[in-house]
Input
Amino acid sequence: MAETSSTISATQNGSAREAILASIRRSLATSEPFDAAWSEHHGHAAISAPVVDPVFSRDKLIENFRNNLELLGAQFALVSSETAASEHVNAVIDKLGAKRIAISDSALVKRLVDESAIEFVENAPASFLFDCDLGVTSAQWAIAETGTLVLESEKESHRLTSLIPPVHLCVLTASNVRQTMGEILELAGKDLSKTMTFITGASRTSDIELTLAIGVHGPGELHVIVIADQ
Amino acid sequence: MEHLTAETFDQNARRALSDPVLHGALRHLADNFAERRKVAMGSVDDWEGLREKARAIKQETLLHLDKYLLQFVEKAEKAGVKFHWARDGREACQIVLDLVNERGAKIVVKSKSMATEEIHLNDALEENGIEPVETDLGEWIIQLAGETPSHIVVPAIHKTKAQIADLFVEKVGIDKTGDVDVLTKTARRILRKRFAEAQVGISGVNFGVAETGTILILENEGNIRLTTGLPKTHIAVMGIEKIIPKFADLDVFLKLLPRSGTGQRLTAYQSFITGVKKNADDEGPNEIHIVLMDNGRSRMLAHPVTRQSLACIRCGACLNACPVYQQIGGHAYGSVYPGPIGAVITPQLVGLSKAKQLPYASSLCGACREVCPVKIDIPELLLHLRAEITDGTAGGAAANPERKRKFAESLAFRMYGFAWSGQLSYGLGIKAARIMQKLIVRDGKIGKASGFLAKLLPPLGAWTAWRDAPAVAPKSFREEWRKTLRSNGGN
Output
């Protein structure tokens, strides 16, 4: 079919680009005489001063994060140490009866899993992930006000481990929890990873009669463990 | 399945009104979405302030769209993204087709994208022997059914659970079930195989950030993360209007879009993609291509009223709030974009002469303007387009066969305007109407006008076809008032 189709060449791409930009500029020039009168007629309200978000104590922040996660149906645990976190990870594995487990390359995650007891595959290929029972990752940040986990691809290799297995278990430290999305966008925006992913609850859909169904393409279960500051 | 066109909106709407199955499917829409939206709105402190901010950001972007587009392209190119510019849908389809063919791919996975619906990308791929697999549950359902989406956010809203169950029995061979979870799990099972075998993933874009070259895509299901994360090649198709200036601006839109669209505080997943991975061993595709598409958009910048159309963030709130959409659903609009926003975008995309009835597909109640998160004045846009139709400026007077009738209508309105402009002419007009109406008033009202009368006064014929018109009262309030004052001996 390549013989018959007119392949879009670089020159064509360049001329399309110039044509589109010229059309934008032409239209904006045409609009100019009408713009002032229209803006006046619409008399838009002044933008109000930004709402100052209350400053929460660390305890309050974690509690807020927990409430919002649980509202979404996620399982939350606050633990006091890495040892306690490790026990909790094992408890989740036992409860699920998970046999095939994928983990990310996070140092924290590797410290928490007991590799003598069960086999874990680090940075598993998609073919393995499709048959996994559980994916364990960390997260770089969390947003308390929405119950959101923030994954940055250049800090950890966790895009697919957090997505393909039916259950996602995520461990992070309390110091990485922030109250608002605005704070996180500012923090992460300074040094953007190639891919940043926000995860807020389990995969869901309402495409059939607006009835909620969980776990359509991503995990149907989300477990979050927060390790309190030492 | 027959695809309706915008040109026959009146007939489409009438047919939809008498379709009980469609009404059964749409009944969830109004209460479900409106309620959820209200609750979600309540979770931000200053909803109106946010809307105003969003409107201002979009306005600023559109007034300097060339500058912000170039900034976006420069930043993303530096991060390894390849750009392709498309003047129209045909060009955009060809670009995608070439990219897919060059990679020898026979199967592509797609996440939901109104831009690709707009250019009928799936048809173009299929005609060239490539299988596009829709992976959003709603999109997959309508692809199985051979239909088109009827809603921007919930593509299969026009289908009942029973219809979907029957479809699954027929197309994927499961036992009939009324369990939404079973239907959903079936889709998961089948689509995972398709994800595993696809070499190319095609997505849309919700926002493109000029400052960083980032694209942001929102979703609930996880299929967008799979589409943009698993195949070796990711192609994103985006309209040129999706740009916003700063990364921090996303805060505003991430608060508005999910709340307005589905009544969520945040959708389950957001993917912020800023270029191609650095190392070959890293996760993610080896290459990212963005197709920047005009397809009639730059024309809309030519007037402040029409320019508003480009601020739309495709949340679907105006559809859910619209009393017309609630009754007839999306297909009746005969266009990719249905509902109030469709009624203003479609005529501008395809040309007013091909969608002349759509600007009239509204009672101008203003519910759409009330809910719009970026404060698009849709009624103003509808009136603007109606004026273009009446003036015959749409496609030139010669292209408008209704010009003659419109002349009679505008003469009638001018006479009406004159009659109401002064006390004397108004009084005389009312007196004349009282005498003339004796011919047609029965029991104090004007019933169904027919035959000669309906022909003479078409608006009266249309009005009285479904309801009575009130007669002019024998005495006006002012006349009654004067009489009462006199008989009471007042001065």
About this structure: Residues 6 and 135 of chain B are 27 Å apart (CA to CA). The domain at 61-295 of chain B is CATH 3.40.50.10420 (Rossmann fold). The mean pLDDT of chain B is 91. Chain B touches chain A through 101 residues (CB under 8 Å).
